[in-house]
Recover the amino acids of this structure.
């Protein structure tokens, strides 16, 4: 087997490079970087809990920056906890609610939730926690009738994401919350809004949510900082313990450079909310329908139009396998991911494509591209020119076999 | 009550500023910052688990950078997990071992461990986990005879830090491990080496440790990244669940910019290990003994000479209260912390000063300063000139009352 270094050397660098794998990793732009820079090097580097000038300076920035994030969700910043990742936010919610109410044992999640939600619930099996999944339509929309049927006095928590991270489905979260709270005010409701944040309007206060997860990385802020909204009055406990610190749900999380980067990314995304989302929507449709038109045997995964997040393109190229797809695209400077099992070091097929009824050969050929304000129309044009050749080549090598 | 903004305006900025509060927060220098910069902006920003050029590039850097950290401890990088904080590393160890062996219920810790260790153990009380603390001498050295006495077949884990973070005591970790393993190979041994890492030689392999915690921030790397060494063959489980990722003990932790900053800080600290530690030791003794000589009624907290970490100065000014101390010092440009209850927003007195037998009035007046390669002799000289006046002023205001 070749070493990664040899692989990289053999790969070389394509003449043009288009990064669409924002779901899995992202850079920050100059503006976000410049917002972090002074906090790394010269100011606000103290612990905001400590009583000296550098500590107070940190505390002041901490409050200001957190306020910007809270405003973007229309919540009070005292109800917004900083965490290290949306994975942690989801886990704090799930592990935390099982401690708040030890009588109820059932957690309902849609079948297309992020794995951090599904795995967190499943990890509690030994503690008697049962997971029940709510099926979705072929477009990934959760079935509200089945949700309603499954609610009972044993139901502790319902976790439904706002937007699906792989296929862009916008979920009927508002309706789901009404159904849940109509049935029983004491059932907690959580939304993982990581893939929705900054893409569709979110008003956590108006939604009457109990818990909401958002992430910095998903709006082009730095990774290793995220947040969890917890409704006023709910006394959630942290899942691990530290020195007493200002942030209590995730001890030791307050780090000004990352918070400053997060807040700057929020500022950019929300100051130009309409503009950015109209822009990515235009690119999305040009890319998605362009590929559908020029390449035979393709299938769009997820809904279309305004039922789909404006940044999401997920399309299956039948007769192609994900590993060949991402590799051959990469050689041509197009970086995306696939729901196929073999395209990541972790060998995990997409449970989401299975949940919407895609057959293995359809999931194998899936290709996920996301669009951000940093993508250009030129990149979309290049991709529309290049991908048909990539697909053609893969299909000709595999002999057009029905995989 | 004044707002933080008003407080800062009233405070102003001293002519000269000397930062010694490295225990609670730190900046990074240009070199570390420049190591992070390209990973934020242009390269290695992909998820290292994904199979495209940016993913592979990230994976290659990930391996290289982690190797540097592993080398600094003489361990194999496959046995080193990345985490978000040393708090998380300590918690993974404690919560994780209780799952590895559900029969044993006793965890032994020294009375001067970091609160993330003590609080983590105490949080398991409902699961039947008992904490027993090993007392320390007046210099903070753990009592090995009592450790030996307390070991029994119910003992799950012994957690003993390598260096105390407040009073600089270097613990006899090697001897403690021998005692524990001689008694029973199956008792796990963990050291929180956060305050030791980079200051005293640490060879985790030679020590025959099971678990070891280190932190990036404590060697002037960025915060929000740390590490946990887990001995080959021990199958520790994560304390929360995520998408499958390369790092398994703390899902979703791999972020190249912070890793690059951590690795650069390691490189600097270990390439000049002897030089840096001789330098801070010289400054330490000049500062500590200088204050002892020029200010009446002071007490050094912790041991002296080579039994004390080279970066640690902790001194009690009798007749002073911590809040006045840190505030008045801050007004004069000297930033440090105190073990008094009132000097942080979290109102927590130092359990360490109590554990070494300090009376309340001694703990009240304690003043913790740490020295790094970024401190200068000029700062030490300034502090030696300034602090006597600060102490004098505080004592004259409080009327020299024996607090």
């Amino acid at each position: 087997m070749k070493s990664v270094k040899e692989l990289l050397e053999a790969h070389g660098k394509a003449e043009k490079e288009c990064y669409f794998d924002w779901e899995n990793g992202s850079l920050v732009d100059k503006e976000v970087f410049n917002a972090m820079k002074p906090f790394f090097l010269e100011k606000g580097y103290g612990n905001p809990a400590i009583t000296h000038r550098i500590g107070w300076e940190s505390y002041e920035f901490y409050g200001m920056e957190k306020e910007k994030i809270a405003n973007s969700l229309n919540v009070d910043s005292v109800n917004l906890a900083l965490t290290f990742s949306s994975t942690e936010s989801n886990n704090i919610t799930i592990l935390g609610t099982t401690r708040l109410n030890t009588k109820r044992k059932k957690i309902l999640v849609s079948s297309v939730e992020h794995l951090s939600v599904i795995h967190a619930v499943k990890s509690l099996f030994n503690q008697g926690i049962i997971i029940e999944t709510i099926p979705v339509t072929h477009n990934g929309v959760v079935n509200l009738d089945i949700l309603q049927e499954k609610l009972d006095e044993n139901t502790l928590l319902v976790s439904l994401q706002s937007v699906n991270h792989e296929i862009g489905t916008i979920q009927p979260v508002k309706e789901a919350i009404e159904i849940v709270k109509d049935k029983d005010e004491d059932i907690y409701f959580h939304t993982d809004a990581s893939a929705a944040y900054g893409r569709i309007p979110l008003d956590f206060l108006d939604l009457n949510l109990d818990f909401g997860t958002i992430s910095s990385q998903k709006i082009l802020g730095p990774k290793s900082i995220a947040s969890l909204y917890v409704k006023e009055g709910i006394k959630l406990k942290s899942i691990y313990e530290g020195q007493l610190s200002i942030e209590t749900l995730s001890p030791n999380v307050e780090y000004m450079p990352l918070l400053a980067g997060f807040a700057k990314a929020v500022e950019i995304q929300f100051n130009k909310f309409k503009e950015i989302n109209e822009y990515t929507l235009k690119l999305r449709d040009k890319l998605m329908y362009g590929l559908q038109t020029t390449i035979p045997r393709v299938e769009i995964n997820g809904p279309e139009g305004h039922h789909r997040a404006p940044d999401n393109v997920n399309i299956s190229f039948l007769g192609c396998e994900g590993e060949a797809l991402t590799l051959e695209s990469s050689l041509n400077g197009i970086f995306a991911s696939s729901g196929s099992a073999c395209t990541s070091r972790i060998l995990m097929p997409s449970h989401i494509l299975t949940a919407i009824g895609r057959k293995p050969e359809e999931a194998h050929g899936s290709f996920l591209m996301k669009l951000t304000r940093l993508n250009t129309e030129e990149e979309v044009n290049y991709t529309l020119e290049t991908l048909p050749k990539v697909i053609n080549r893969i299909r000709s090598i595999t002999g057009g076999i029905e995989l």
